[in-house]
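All the exercises in this workshop are built on plain-text protein records. Sequence and backbone structure share a record, each on its own labelled line. The structure tokens are whole numbers drawn from a learned vocabulary of backbone shapes. The record below serves as our worked example for the rest of this section.
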Amino acid sequence: MLSFKQFILEAPILDTSTENVKQPAEYGHVKNEGKRKTISTIGDNSVKELSLTPTTTSYTLHTPDNKIAIKAIGSRNGDKFTIRSLDSSIGSPIKAHQFYHHLITQNGVHLHSDNIQSPGGKKVWERLRSMPGIEMKSYHPDGSYRDIPDSAKLDDYFDSPVRFSAKKK
């Protein structure tokens, strides 16, 4: 069971550009689509970026019929993007770890986790760690990055104030 803090941190964030978005399996067409900028493609799917505020960004995966299959919202500082919320539709053609991998390797995003992970979030970071071309480190409250030994389990880090950092090798 999630604590109240975890529940609040994982609650969907209202994105005013998606006022007519359906829930949850079919996110639907985006009303103000012109504000989103296509930054890359994964097969027949497009990856789009939208600045919600000067420091908040949304990355979305759109299917060929322009439905949102994955939406990641977080804070952006230069090339560093700290994930605050991830929504993935049931039956998405791309899995969350593949989406993260694409953002990192194809778009140069330096991805940071939040410091609280749901069971699904833990799996995403574990799968991302094993993908090619990724350099994953732990990011500590003092602002330092430290290598994660290959023999270490990410489970050892989940209950600490440490976050994860993943960038292109």
Q: What stands out?
A: The chain has three helices and nine strands. Residues 96-107 form the longest helix (12 residues). Helices lie at 4-10, 96-107, 119-129.
